[in-house]
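User: Hey, quick favor. My workstation is busy. Could you predict this chain's structure for me?
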Amino acid sequence: MFGVEFRPLTFGDVLGLDDAKDILRRILHTGDYDAGYIFGGSHATGKTTLGRIFARAVLCEHRREDMSPCNECKSCRDFLAERNPGYIEIDAANQGTKDNIQAIKDSLRYETLSSRKIILVDEAHDISEAGKDALLIPRERGDKSVLFIFCTTEPEKMHNTLRSRCMEFAIQDPSEALVRQKLEIICGAKKLPSDREALEDIVRSVGRHYRDAENKLRQVSLLGDISRENVKKAVSLYVDEAAGLLLTLPDDLGRALKFADYLVLKMSVHRIYSLVVRMLVDSVKASNGVTFGEGQYQELLRAISRRYGAMAYEVVDYLVSKNRLNDQQMFQSDLLVLHYRFRKGSFVPKEQPSAARAAEEPRQAAAVGTAPGTAALKAPTVTELSRMPDGKREDVVREYKESRRRQRVDERVPERVSGAWGPEKKENTEELIHRRPVSKAELERVLKGTLDEKRI
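Assistant: No problem, here it is.
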């Protein structure tokens, strides 16, 4: 396996994790060791590898300048041959009982040629509750000649009291660039002809995990060169076909369904959904300046970005809101619904109101106590109308009537549908101001304040 053959042996071989490596080097330089160390993070990110390098460096007789183990002294050779008496490694998944922990504690009583004893516990979260309690006693003694190293994918499941007595390192997932770099190193060492885009496809298929990518690389190498075609066969990742599905779905449902049928034969529905969503998200990133190289994948993203534009946000929102990503029938149904929505134009962003209208609607809404977009205009008074020219007066009244009509429809449609209010009543429209002229006497009384203002 490539993962075992090319496992890092020094701090310099470990890609990334610069902060953790700097702290561990400082600890080795000063010799001020803590009683325990926790390396926590997701699987296949280098937790156990880093713990072993640190343990080997603690026991090393001739460390390198960067505090890495020399891997040549007797201690290092014994360590690599799994016979160093100062080092014990257990897998808590099957050796985490109280009896296993007690056996380790008993072994610490015996003297060895090594000045220190190191116990590395892999999958430490699987230690039984009794075993976790048994570990607290040696930690409480604070014997710095005995170091515990806990590697776990779930540090939150470990005993809180135990965690408080250890120095904890959060091992983050590597970037996709680092995983690809590791694959390039392996291809160079094994003299495997490789295509950069093929390596990116491998990383894209497994995510940010070294061991998973190394295993897939080994699988592809059995077919020959590391090419995109061999990657398709080995890891079932059909990027071009997924791009074809996305590009034809808005306009040509027939071709899109053919792409979908082909993809279903080659990939699980869950992986198709994941790949489609990822390509949409990457297309948005590409349209905002993020680069994914200058190869074919970047060209596909540009084509998707040109075809979808802002609609990519709504399509992603529609897809990720589905809790059925393993259902083939729902996958086909989603294609039909998305195509229909494209043809209907429901993905096209709605026209925004002008700045003047956007500023006016909240003011009108505050005047009548309704939400923006549904507000009725404030009714003009006789005084206001009398001061307007004839044409302006008619426009104001007409606009007011239209706003009242819209508001009545909004308010009464649910009531009419439910039948709670019976048949709709006709509006009483008598005494509309614009249908009768305002007399000179009325105007004079208005100016003198003797006429009460009436609202329409």
